[in-house]
Specification:
- The structure is a homotetramer.
- By secondary structure, chain A is of the alpha+beta class.
- Chain A has a single domain, classed as Chorismate synthase AroC (Chorismate synthase, AroC fold, 4-Layer Sandwich), CATH 3.60.150.
- Helices cover about 25% and strands about 20% of the residues of chain A.
- The first copy, chain A, has seven helices and 17 strands.
- Chain A has a five-stranded antiparallel sheet, with helices on one face. In chain A, strands 8-9-15-10 form a four-stranded antiparallel sheet. In chain A, strands 5-6 form a two-stranded antiparallel sheet.
- In chain A, helix 3 packs across helix 7 and helix 5 runs antiparallel to helix 7.
- The longest helix of chain A is centred in the last third of the chain and has 24 residues.
- The first copy, chain A, is globular.
- Chains in contact: A-B, A-C, A-D, B-C, B-D, C-D.
- Chains A and B meet through strand 1, helix 2, helix 5, strand 10 and helix 6 of A and strand 1, helix 2, helix 5, strand 10 and helix 6 of B.
Chain lengths: ~325, ~325, ~325, ~325
Amino acid sequence: MNTFGTNFRITTFGESHGPAVGAVIDGCPSGLALGTGDIQPLLDRRRPGTSALVSPRDELDRVEILSGVFEGLTTGMPIALLVRNETQEPKDYEELRTLFRPGHADFTYQQKYGCRDHRGGGRSSGRETVGRVAAGAVAIKFLAEKGIAISGVIVSVHGKTGTAAIEAEILAAKNAGDSVGGIVEITARGVPAGLGDPVFGKLDAQIAGAMMGIGAVKGVEIGDGFEVAGRFGSENNDPITKNGFASNHAGGILGGISSGQEIVVRIAVKPTPSIAKPQKTIDIHGNEAEISIKGRHDPCIVPRILPVAESMLALVLIDSWLEQAKYHR
Amino acid sequence: MNTFGTNFRITTFGESHGPAVGAVIDGCPSGLALGTGDIQPLLDRRRPGTSALVSPRDELDRVEILSGVFEGLTTGMPIALLVRNETQEPKDYEELRTLFRPGHADFTYQQKYGCRDHRGGGRSSGRETVGRVAAGAVAIKFLAEKGIAISGVIVSVHGKTGTAAIEAEILAAKNAGDSVGGIVEITARGVPAGLGDPVFGKLDAQIAGAMMGIGAVKGVEIGDGFEVAGRFGSENNDPITKNGFASNHAGGILGGISSGQEIVVRIAVKPTPSIAKPQKTIDIHGNEAEISIKGRHDPCIVPRILPVAESMLALVLIDSWLEQAKYHR
Amino acid sequence: MNTFGTNFRITTFGESHGPAVGAVIDGCPSGLALGTGDIQPLLDRRRPGTSALVSPRDELDRVEILSGVFEGLTTGMPIALLVRNETQEPKDYEELRTLFRPGHADFTYQQKYGCRDHRGGGRSSGRETVGRVAAGAVAIKFLAEKGIAISGVIVSVHGKTGTAAIEAEILAAKNAGDSVGGIVEITARGVPAGLGDPVFGKLDAQIAGAMMGIGAVKGVEIGDGFEVAGRFGSENNDPITKNGFASNHAGGILGGISSGQEIVVRIAVKPTPSIAKPQKTIDIHGNEAEISIKGRHDPCIVPRILPVAESMLALVLIDSWLEQAKYHR
Amino acid sequence: MNTFGTNFRITTFGESHGPAVGAVIDGCPSGLALGTGDIQPLLDRRRPGTSALVSPRDELDRVEILSGVFEGLTTGMPIALLVRNETQEPKDYEELRTLFRPGHADFTYQQKYGCRDHRGGGRSSGRETVGRVAAGAVAIKFLAEKGIAISGVIVSVHGKTGTAAIEAEILAAKNAGDSVGGIVEITARGVPAGLGDPVFGKLDAQIAGAMMGIGAVKGVEIGDGFEVAGRFGSENNDPITKNGFASNHAGGILGGISSGQEIVVRIAVKPTPSIAKPQKTIDIHGNEAEISIKGRHDPCIVPRILPVAESMLALVLIDSWLEQAKYHR
């Protein structure tokens, strides 16, 4: 459950307020030039403490490569990536030992495991994505060498578009002790035709699973997504010409296999459930209580989810790329 | 790629116009009463030829149980389910040997495999879902004995709601040589809290992958889905009371783990790409051509996708149910 | 548990006295010429009824290809292979409904599943290997096109070597209402250097698992096997010269990865547990009883295990071959 | 390839002379009391530098738990275990940058990956087993709470039995610049009947794969192993009485499923390939050369392989135990 991928497999570990977070990559081909300098920039994009729009938790998130790289090149052996947690403040979370935060995994983890690490959400914290992003950076580097580029943009936050409007909306929510959601679009260019598998291993199925596996994501669309439900087939089919497809309603995937067009994915991100405003909840004994969440939280996770979503798309694509390679020796 | 699930694993096989389609279930617990009578009704719900709204291909889809059941009970051994194809009319498809149908997998399969079974889409045909539904029926029976019930409804077709309006819309499209898409909602009641896993194995991630792995699905929502992007956290969080959650915006899943509430999933279904209206395309040599698709097609796949989507949700839930069981001996 | 392989995956199904046995292959590359004529000869080598040395059960074991082959070539889609059971005689086995046969899986299946198909061992019967051999034949054909040849020989039966001595030993055991074991050696020639993975995915680890997964096998050796325990390192290391290795004590595998030398595997096969001689046992209620096993049994399974062991080695090698291919595009 | 297990999955990482070695455990049930004190003793049993019989490399092998344990109990989250390498002396290995050591993985890794970490064998070093043993210690603790005990003994070294004779044999080999092999037996007591799966997932198949996946192992036997090849069925079958089985030739496994008897496994361990005596080899350019291996090596790996083999058996058994649990809720 903490492993993703079939060919390029990552296993992540670590809790928000434990000693460290990280990932082990298994299946990375040998011969890829790799150093911490390839990984740190993507980690820096997701790290908190960088502006008023995000959590003030000031983690430097310095990554260490523990294995799998020798004299600057990957060896084909597992690549262990480690990031120490430096600014744990578990005292901030003592109240959460017994209270379930609405919209969080507190209640369900307690039901499933009979216990939980209440400090900042433990494993269910967004801090878990450090491992994904560190591993994703390796995938992104590999893909870049194959001509595949991945990028993400914020489509909207709380219904607003445009950088200034979005920033204002986030700050307003923050000042109100509240939070806001949004929509993000991720695209991949340069993906060759033929990636993905029929039936259950469809490329879009893998992408949907990868994206919905990011905390806070509640919806996934490929290409035109829900809009296609209101269309005629004659409107929605992408005509094929000798110069390629005449449109891209399909978002670059047909029958679960990449068509060579740009792959387009959109995800719906819910407002951060940690808010200062008082909320109704219960404690682990079933008693009703009111909770006002303290600690260092993001009023909107949308900006920081971008490198995570890009990483997940990269992990799906490198996995499919390697899968396809074995049939085309 | 043709196997789904970790604990209750199904492997499907078969092409639209080959000798047979079917599935092998591995990991079904022993002692479940099972006969063809438990499977046939769900197959009948997805089979074509039943009304003017669906494809006239008249397959009886009689299922045979080849293994894994002894004296009326499952034995824990693999359950092989076979359905013979009876009304192949490959001559209908001779034109497709060289032409790529827009919106179909023809182009991408050819790119991936260097060849393809052009007869009715071969493996990319919706006929592949016979195996899913046959296996899904077994999962549905098992879950029912645990108090879990799954059902699906059509939310809208081409923007219309209401049975009469939907039927009129489908027939109008059919008469125009066109097709229409729609939205389907699947719910599961009686799911205990605690199913699903953290991180990559989140229950919603599994559901999203399962649903997007159904041909024609272009979007997946859990709970309120894309609507949450426009909300405040204080609106979107489901308050917890001693009588349970006060609302269900989350769709029954928190942190990737079932909360005990109803699980709610919506999917966007694209209009069937097979339409009689002429479309621009190319042949396998790259020459431009016009195509008008003959054969026995559905003007709207939405009604027949219901049992498929219910099956996929059942397959995810039985898998999670068994996964959870091992930690609660 | 009924699936073998990571890249070339086979799932087998069927019981000794159920309607059919078979296998589904997933992951076979497209473009391989394949017909029943490629599969039937290997099935014929394992089938019973061919001489006084083996079981008189006279199954023709005709294989049907249900999917995955189109116009004589594999398409990359799952290949379902079906063999109907034709000569079930379940009445022969009525006594076994309540008695546990010593040396058989009857007792352990009952313990594990709370039930079992007692007819000829059900799934634990050697008849299950029909699916392995049918799938193995496809692997053998693929490997042959890559220059890899697999063959097996009987090393000894009940301590005897030489065809005539072995046949006499088997017939003597049969006439005494008893059975005998033996040793089989399987070799693969033409395997390129580089197949197999470090650590848990070592080629010899995969082979050992594959061989010990054949019923009746109780020991596996690679290269010189147990003999190496009595050697000095200076005797056991294979010196390397510019013309290749000077010896092959290692059996073609170093550090879990093929060296390009011949791969050599030996397996110990126990005497068939089904014997006419009376044996002490208990029934399902715990009462002691004496059992004298009727039905159509092999006095020595060694001759019929050869095509099964060859198939298992082929399945390991094709899987490793495809795994390796993905890193050498 | 660096992951073992289906339910209790371990992923190991690290090279002999890299910064660290370790493992991530995924799927350990919550609520197990766990601290470094449960892991360190087994690591101490495998560590070098403890006597004249083993390598003088003096690693303390202090384990750190990075995640998955909260307030002394496992949480169900991945448990990352880290051991820093402290006494790397890569200069000892400079010669090996270009020379292939006979009997080692140097040649095959170079063939497979086109590169290799030559320092002490890199990933192919026995140092990789630190991760297995650290994870194995967790499995052993869990199993002990279920009444399952695992232990190993040296059967023979270079044909000698008895502690004094074995020690003399090892020291004699060491003084001669040579090495010796041996045989080890591992047993598990208290294993309930019903663990393991039919067909490919047989308990003995899993054990054989696990054992042959330990470097230096060239043969695996279950129960009486190769001896059964020379027996009659009437000798080899274990009669069943109302007090249990009357013998245990089968080694506690019937039809791939545990019978409740003691599980008995024997492995053949080859003499350490690293010897001071001069050997013929080639360099990476194909030129012939003589090699006399320096560095800190074990003249016999048999004593240190014991905790590794015990760990691997524990990992198989915990995996089967959890697998079985899910069908007996």
